[in-house]
Structures are given as C-alpha cells and as structure tokens.
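Re: beginner question about structure tokens

> Can someone show what the tokenized structure looks like for a real chain? I only ever see the sequence side.

Sure, here's an example I had lying around. Input first:
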Amino acid sequence: MNSSTPPPAAEKAVYVNQMFAGIAQRYDLVNRLMTGGQDVSWRREVVALCRLPAGGRLLDVGTGTGDIAYEAKHTHPDAEVIGCDFTFEMMDVGRRKRAQQSPRIRSGRQRDSVEFVQGDGLDLPFADGYFDAVASGFLLRNVTDVDTCLAEQRRVTRPGGRIVCLETSPPPPTLLEPMLRFYMLRIIPVVGQLFATGIGTQGNSFRPRDSAYRYLPQSTVAFLQPDEMAQKFERAGFRHVSYVRKMMGTVAIHVGTA
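And the corresponding structure tokens:
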C-alpha cells in the first residue's frame, strides 16, 4: 500500500491513536499554521453555541490538547468541564497547559479546572444525560463509526442540551475546489512534515513511513459533506440541526439539540 492510501477501516483506530500520540507535542502549532489562526475563533464559536447554563456541565469529546475545554472553562468558570480522549499523549500536553491558564482554572479543584478523562468516543464512560452540552473539534472524521459516536454523545446529553461539532469538510463543488484540493493534498502534508513527526502503524498493510499530515487532509476529502452529516445528527435523535461553513467551505460547525 502506498503512502497516499488512508488506513483500512480495521486498522484505523490503532493508526489514529498512534498518529496523534506522535504529533501531540506540535499539534497546536501546526493547527495554527494550517488555519492561519482561525481555529482559535472557531473554538470560541463552538463554546458560545453550546449555550452552557450557569454551573452547567460540558464534555469535550476527542479533546486532544484541551483547547475547547479550556475555552469553555475560561468563559464559564463555574462550569464543570471534562475533556475526554483515547490518546493519552494528547491529553498529557493538555494537562501541562493548565499552568498557562488563569489562577482560577489552574487551582486544581475539580470544578475550578479542566478534568481530563481517558475514554473512547464510541463508548463514553459517563452516565446518561449527565452533560448540558457536548462539544468536539476535528473528531468525527477520525472515528471508525460516526453513527455510534453521535449516538453516544446523544446518550450523555440531557434533554434540551446541545451538541456542537467543529469538523473539516470536503471542498464544496465551486470554482475554488481544485485550488482547495491542491492546498489540502499537496501543501498541508509539506507543512506538517516540516513541523511534526511522520508516523504510522506497524501493521502489514500500513507502513511507518506514512505521514500524519498526509492522512489528515485525505480524511477530510473522503469525509461526509455537511448536509450528509446533518442527516446523521437527525438519525441520532438530535433536533433543530444546522451547520455553518467556514474557511471557504472546508470547515463546518454543526449544531443539534437533544
């Protein structure tokens, strides 16, 4: 299998875990570079769309280094904010960010800090209806079963609570599509290789030479269009589903009500 081929579905979970472990130290830097810093404002918008009530509970699924979780804690200091991810190395980077946060956030008390919990988005370790809002950033295209992942997020969201997902989208069919595909499939891998470590699984069909930042744009191009994602939200039981596209249509923020 050549280096331009994404991992087979049977190997995807292992590959994604190893990939993010390998790029954890520079994940935030490369994100800022590839989006021109726009990912910071997108995450702020995600948290605002969660409409978290006073003293509420927010879950950041696939939290990675905790950017959404810390933004939620910054804007809602009285909330209980939990970040959940199955890649320990990403959360370890996130935990070390605590020293950069406000004194209230880094105090260490459970409700005054972001709590990190290792777990699988397909089998969340939380009670039914526990959260007032569930958010995620660039998670869904990396899971092996989008429907199960959304069903789990619906399960842990209280009735009337919100789900808000920030996700990349295939370039829309406009005159800019060829340029956007060239940027995603040719430029992003080069930028990523300059700043992050290329890794891969040790399996028989997916070799270690494959680059993390070759997989990431490929996973975007092969992913669902926003209207297809909206249909999955509705099938998972969410109501009032909507989305807004960003970055010339290559990113979307999806919203639904439990």
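Each token stands for a local structural state, so reading them left to right follows the chain. Strands lie at 57-61, 80-85, 115-118, 131-137, 157-168, 239-246, 251-257.
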